[in-house]
Amino acid sequence: MTNVDWDAEAASFDEEPDHGLRDPEVRRAWAGRLRGWLPGRAQDVLDLGCGTGSLSLLASEQGHRVTGVDLSPAMVALAREKLAGRDAAFLVGDAAAPPVGEERFDAVLVRHVLWALPDPGRALRHWRGLLRPDGRLVLVEGVWGIEPVGIPAERLTALLGPIAGPVRVERLSADPLLWGGEVTDERYAVIAEVRPSGQERGEPAAPGQ
């Protein structure tokens, strides 16, 4: 899976129900979930591994300012076309270390990307550093396939333990509208709140720090 030529896959990528969100019911299902996962007011969202921008579009329609990053130039071109005229920007780059400079975000949204990275823990720490105080990580992952690939929810929540505050897991396998049909494998979302440290809140450092 990690050796897929995503440029070659770009033209047909949206044919999968949960990729293109072309079915109105599937689209509404994802929009409803996203509304519960992202901040309630208009904020800055970083969509990593954004593909053709389907989730970016939903976030934009909900009022957020979106920056999308994908390693595939063909995917990025399609995302730019999909969100033309909206408050959104798309960059070609590595989701594990997105090329956003000093920019910081209120939410980092990642779907079906973390499991394929060589060092998920390192990526999570980097993403946490891209968040403003009180930001959140929204991670949609799972375990699927005949020879299963993915990352179990228990492993992901363990990786988040040292770097995040409250962590919420939403099981998604039982909602066929999200996937365009019934699924029997593990699919879930983790929403991790990131609380500022004392220094980030402006409190003085303890002696010796």
Main beta-sheet annotation:
8 strands, mixed
Query: CA-to-CA gap between the ends?
Result: 44 Å
> Cα-atom Rg, whole angstroms?
17 Å
Q: What is the chain-wise order of helices and strands?
A: HHHEHEHEEHEEHEE
Share of helix among residues?
25-40%
Low-confidence stretches: 198-209
Helix-strand makeup class: alpha/beta
Number of strands: 8
The helix count comes to 7
Mean pLDDT: 91
Globally, the shape reads: globular
Estimate what percentage of residues fall within beta strands: 15-25%
Description:
- The chain is α/β, with parallel strands linked by helices and about 210 residues long.
- The chain has helices spanning about 5-15, 15-20, 25-35, 55-60, 75-80, 120-130, 155-160, and strands at about 45-50, 65-70, 90, 105-110, 130-145, 150, 165-170, 185-195.
- Strands 1, 2, 3, 4, 5, 6, 7 and 8 form an eight-stranded mixed beta sheet that branches.
- Helix 1 runs parallel beside helix 5.
- The longest helix is centred in the first third of the chain and has 14 residues, at about 25-35.
How would you describe this structure in keywords?
209 residues, 7 helices, 8 strands, globular, 8-stranded mixed β-sheet, alpha/beta, disordered C terminus
